[in-house]
């Protein structure tokens, strides 16, 4: 397989990079200064693209690689891949489902606790030596708060199970009601937001779910409501979120993802009811290794004409 060209879209895992380098002819796209020149020079040898949540394969890249057979994403989300173009051209697509579910769900619960109990602010309070001048103010309880989840897929369900263990009543919104769950279904995001204290975004990013959390949803969640986003930044209308938080129309937010990563609205930096994370939902040693092994397994299966491990297209 050493002669098969694999284009890695951006840096994502040094282990994956090393293993790809051992097995294939690896091209690191981020190191290429003249991208168009490079593509016309190597287009005939590149048969695979490895992308992630930040860079994948858009129509332009796919069109410039006539020998492309497979796009293997180091992510479960597929929003950086032009799936229709892949289908049209018979290009296979794989992702990394399941192996990251627990980590992302754990982090969602961590964000709920951090926002409500002001864990990060408490830590800053101690580090700044402020404890000596007085106790930290009282915060808000997490156990028992009602949790509404947008997207009851693998991650949404794992969040629901964890929140249930904290005594939280669970409700959700998806395009259709799930038959195998007792969680309360709301047929619209606004209804879900009106009926929960913590709203979690855990759905896939598609043209329909872009800004699924808009001003109306934030108004419905209200001045005591907490928004948790571990989906994708564009799920939330960020300008509206910033003004809702600054004006106190929303109670708080725990955000792992942002509209223009790694740019984060600086107006949020001074707010103690907001916890900001640098898109680390799946960012543990164990999970990133498992994700890398899935990418490698899918590529090897494809080039050995075996069934793909986690096929999407
Ligand atoms: P999944 O099992 O495919 O679940 C996706 C869910 O999205 C399903 O419940 C689906 O429900 C719902 N959905 C799709 N379109 C919708 C729409 N128009 N309106 C409402 N709900 C919609 O995927 P997963 O493994 O749980 O992953 C979910 C997402 O989490 C990923 O796509 C990714 O963006 C994000 N993620 C983030 C991180 C991070 O680091 N923060 C890590 C991993 C994943 P229906 O089809 O029934 O509507």
Automatic annotation (TrEMBL):
GO terms for cellular component: cytosol. Residues 13-312 form the D-isomer specific 2-hydroxyacid dehydrogenase catalytic domain. It holds the Pfam family 2-Hacid_dh. Keywords: NAD, NADP, Oxidoreductase. Coiled coil: none annotated. The keyword NADP applies. Residues 109-281 form the D-isomer specific 2-hydroxyacid dehydrogenase NAD-binding domain. One of its GO terms (molecular function) is glyoxylate reductase (NADPH) activity. Belongs to the D-isomer specific 2-hydroxyacid dehydrogenase family. This is Hydroxyphenylpyruvate reductase. It comes from Solanum lycopersicum (Tomato).
